[in-house]
Design brief:
It is built from 14 helices and 8 strands. With 405 residues, the chain is α/β, with parallel strands linked by helices. The protein has a single domain, classed as 3-Layer(aba) Sandwich (Rossmann fold), CATH 3.40.50. The strands form 2 sheets. Strands 2-1-3-4-5-8 form a 6-stranded mixed beta sheet. It has a two-stranded antiparallel sheet with strand order 6-7. Strand 6 and strand 7 form a beta hairpin. The relative contact order is 0.13.
Length: 405
């Protein structure tokens, strides 16, 4: 064989291998980037996508063009179902733009991206105390930082809502890597052999179906999830010197909330904020660590920002309450509850509770059972009376749990 013919054959072989590799990754679509057709038993479950929300969600939200976005961390990702019947029909397609592990600043930057790239007219923003509470640098003045990372390069606008000139390059790089890399090929094969009912998964609308939680509960029990998370919380809140403010009564997180409110008013977008619900043991971890006053200040500060900048057009709900939903017996190794009420563990609530939250926030008649409200609309409440009532509720409900033991 001549050198010329050998080279030609070799190049054809390389091209065929490359095209085949790309075809497999495109069809299986392990990272949900290409939104290829999902076929039950073949590529429907996407376990590799579970830890890659920062990769696929920024691109998916621009392709899907939802009218409503849910923004927040892992709590609303697992608790607020975009397909719930408790969404008002006027809200149109709902996308869960939620990112486990990302703080408020990054969540808001993703929100800016969705608004700039699409036709969003309704935002449901879940805020979380733990995203506001950490060791501060005590900045001397208020500022809005320009932070750069691989995640921020995937957003069409920057921190001041100007065009991100690196977006196109990042998109080409991410899609190319997901087509041609051996890591993607490996994840494609893992996807093909992981088509089990309890495999980790994300829906096309970004929702975490929590199937891996089901498997743990089935084989080990609710108490395992509960105990593990409780230890994490106690360790997290045991750190001294944590604060929700950078300087005075200001922080980057509260600045982010202010900017979302201003953007929603400028764009005529309906904005609803809500504080995520926690199991009472989560609330007790905050209290026992000495951060309860900071927690109440967090709620007051959110309420004040909404009142100051919201012009009575922005709603804010508090679901982080002592209530019949959040105060329930703790599963143990001896007394294990296979179905742990409204929570998977102290920090993450189930979609069943999320349904009731949507019912409350949007005043929908979507639940057959006549159940009590889950949260409190802070717009219509005196915040001090609300917080004082919660102190009394705590004593009543914890005493009730004690009597049940």
């Amino acid at each position: 064989m001549s050198v010329k013919k050998y080279t030609f054959t070799f190049l054809c072989f390389v091209v065929l291998i490359t095209v085949g590799l790309a075809a497999i990754n495109y069809i299986v679509d392990p990272y949900m980037l290409f939104q290829s057709q999902r076929i039950s038993g073949f590529n429907d479950k996407k376990p590799a996508s579970a830890n890659r929300s920062r990769l696929f969600k920024p691109y998916n939200v621009t392709n899907i063009q939802p009218h409503t976005i849910v923004v927040g961390n892992s709590r609303p990702e697992i608790g607020i179902d975009p397909k719930s019947t408790c969404w008002p029909p006027i809200n149109g397609t709902v996308y869960s733009l939620t990112f486990p592990g990302l703080g408020t600043y990054a969540q808001v930057r993703a929100l800016f991206h969705a608004v700039a790239a699409g036709q969003v007219n309704n935002i449901l923003l879940g805020v979380d105390f733990v995203d506001f509470l950490y060791k501060r640098n005590h900045a001397k003045k208020a500022f809005w930082p320009k932070l750069n990372s691989e995640f921020f390069s995937r957003l069409v606008v920057d921190e001041i809502f100007q065009e991100n000139k690196n977006y196109s390059f990042s998109k080409i790089k991410d899609f190319s890597t997901s087509l041609f890399s051996l890591n993607a090929l490996n994840d494609s094969f893992i996807t093909l052999i992981s088509q089990f009912p309890n495999s980790k998964n994300r829906t096309n609308l970004g929702f975490n179906t929590a199937r891996d939680y089901h498997e743990i509960i089935q084989y080990e029990g609710s108490w395992v999830l509960f105990e593990q998370k409780k230890k994490e919380l106690d360790k997290q809140f045991s750190k001294a010197g944590l604060s929700i403010f950078d300087s005075g009564q200001w922080s980057i997180e509260f600045e982010a909330i202010k900017r979302v409110i201003q953007l929603s008013l400028e764009r005529n977008i309906k904005l609803t904020l809500f504080i995520n619900p926690y199991h009472y043991t989560y609330l007790e971890s905050i209290r026992n660590a000495g951060y309860w006053e900071e927690f109440e200040t967090f709620k007051k500060s959110l309420n004040n920002i909404v009142k100051k900048y919201g012009k009575e057009k922005v709603m804010i709900w508090d679901f982080s309450l002592y209530s019949d939903y959040t105060v329930s017996p703790i599963p143990t190794k001896v007394v294990n509850f296979k179905k742990f009420d409204w929570f998977w563990e102290p920090a993450h609530y189930k979609a069943e509770l999320g349904e009731l939250m949507l019912r409350d926030m949007y005043d929908m008649h979507c639940i057959k059972e006549n159940r009590k409200p889950v949260g409190v609309n802070l717009n219509n409440s005196n915040i001090d009376i609300h917080l004082s009532y919660q102190q009394k509720q705590r004593l009543v409900l914890l005493n009730k749990i004690h009597l049940l033991k």
